[in-house]
Design a protein that fits this description.
By secondary structure, the protein is of the alpha+beta class. About 10% of the residues lie in helices and about 15% in strands. The chain folds into two domains: about 1-75, no CATH class; about 90-145, no CATH class. It contains one helix and five strands, in the order E-E-E-H-E-E.
Length: about 140
């Protein structure tokens, strides 16, 4: 943020998890208050990193002042490598990713597919990801070569 951006100046609002919804981000402007949003009210010099597909919009300003914003758009040109710190006992299938109290409506099997595919991609293993329908449990199974 190039300037102090308190709530009164109309900071950007994000809807966490909305990149997993089957709707278009431009539809967000038609809604009033949305439960679970996060405001980016912050002092000058603050930086927010986000995925562009997450629903976002400017909130209403009550000051009448101009709010400035600087945006940069980066696009990965090569697949990532798994080079982050690893916890020895971490099991992806047992991880709890959602925030407490966070809920959105989406078919569970679609979320599982998207999250697993993203995890494989972030690990640099996108060629090893595939989903196989498990008819007994009606859930996908994720396999690697």
């Amino acid at each position: 943020m190039p300037q102090d951006t308190p709530k009164e100046l109309g900071p950007t609002e994000f809807l966490l998890g909305s990149h997993l919804l089957f709707s278009l981000q431009p539809w967000m402007r038609h809604y009033g208050n949305i439960r679970g949003t996060v405001l980016t009210a912050a002092p000058a010099g603050s930086i927010f990193l986000t995925a562009y597909s997450i629903w976002h919009r400017r909130t209403s300003s009550t000051t009448g002042e101009v709010r400035n914003l600087i945006k940069y758009w980066y696009k990965r040109t090569v697949p990532p490598e798994r080079d982050w710190i690893r916890e020895q006992n971490f099991q992806p299938q047992d991880a709890k990713h959602a925030q407490p109290g966070f809920y959105f409506h989406r078919e569970h099997h679609r979320t599982i597919n998207d999250v697993a595919e993203m995890f494989y991609w972030l690990c640099g293993m996108e060629d090893e990801y595939r989903s196989v329908n498990n008819l007994e449990n009606n859930l996908p199974i994720f396999l690697s070569k």
